[in-house]
Design goal:
Elements lengths: L25 H37 L6 H9 L23 H8 L7 H42 L12
């Protein structure tokens, strides 16, 4: 996990009711939480793309030859912590992604990996975009946690409400 990602989220144990969510019906609350999680998936996908672009720029800049397939596997698979990126991604290629104009421009730009000024400019813009995505992702996590806490409170008060989630077989 990168330092920018922040601490891992912890399970909600001591749930506190949310004034903002208390007025939602249970189905609305579940739907709201699902929409937040879908948005978090999209934001995480963009963050992974930004990190991959940064990793590729670094590898291309440090190499005196074009990257091979083996180089790409190493660069895009290594997290720098000894682990590998193996997260399952629920985003489908045909799904629209949130528009991030700065990122679209950065992807369309040809960057000469031998030009330190070009690389520095793109790295600076990608880093700023990654920080923006990370901040937004943290806010989404807070809202997801708030919705989860509200669901926990409601299920504790009425355990049979959770039965609606079990598919009829």
């Amino acid at each position: 996990m990168s330092p920018a990602a922040g601490p891992r989220r912890r399970p909600v144990v001591d749930a506190m009711s949310s004034e903002l969510l208390a007025g939602l019906h249970l189905d609305e609350l579940r739907s709201y939480r699902q929409r937040l999680e879908a948005e978090e998936d999209r934001v995480s996908y963009w963050r992974r793309l930004v990190h991959a672009r940064l990793d590729l720029l670094a590898a291309e800049s440090a190499s005196d030859h074009p990257l091979s397939v083996d180089d790409l596997v190493r660069v895009l698979g290594d997290t720098g912590t000894g682990g590998t990126r193996r997260a399952l991604v629920s985003i489908r290629a045909a799904e629209p992604l949130p528009e991030l104009p700065e990122l679209a421009a950065m992807w369309g730009d040809e960057v000469d990996p031998r030009d330190p000024e070009q690389v520095a400019d793109v790295v600076e813009r990608l880093t700023a975009a990654e920080q923006q995505l990370t901040t937004y992702r943290r806010a989404l996590h807070e809202r997801i946690d708030e919705a989860t806490a509200e669901l926990i409170i409601r299920y504790r008060a009425n355990p049979s409400a959770a039965l609606a989630l079990i598919p009829e077989g």
